[in-house]
Design goal:
122 residues, mainly beta, seven-stranded mixed β-sheet, four-stranded antiparallel β-sheet, 11 strands, 48% strand, globular
Length: 122
């Protein structure tokens, strides 16, 4: 059974930091592209950052570039999102996503976690 369990969310003041973690099980984590997404009330879910299976390649949304860093530990089946210099507009539910390799012969499957709330407020 596939599970993605996020942790590390909470309430933080503007300018503060949080580190989110997503522990994965039920699929081969080391071959999956992992990502963090967020959804604010009344808005669509947006991509925040993604990381390749080996961690060599990352992609970060312009809105968080320079403040957020995605990383992974394949030995622990865990992906992280370090969030610094947080702003009120970063308030959202943050979701972890895992995408195992896919091809013409293997359909793409996206696995999602339940999300963790991040609130940035004074």
């Amino acid at each position: 059974q596939v599970q993605l369990v996020e942790s590390g969310g909470g309430l933080v003041q503007p300018g503060g930091s949080l580190r989110l973690a997503c522990a994965a099980s039920g699929f081969t984590f080391s071959t999956a592209t992992m990502g963090w997404y967020r959804q604010a009330p009344g808005k669509e879910r947006d991509e925040v950052a993604t990381i390749s299976p080996t961690g060599e390649r990352t992609n970060t949304a312009d809105s968080v570039k320079g403040r957020f860093t995605i990383s992974r530990d394949n030995a622990k089946n865990t992906v992280y999102l370090q969030m610094n210099s947080l702003k009120p507009e970063d308030t959202a539910v943050y979701y972890c996503k895992g995408t195992p390799p896919y091809s013409y012969f293997r359909n793409r499957v996206d696995y999602w976690g339940q999300g963790t709330q991040v609130t940035v407020s004074s």
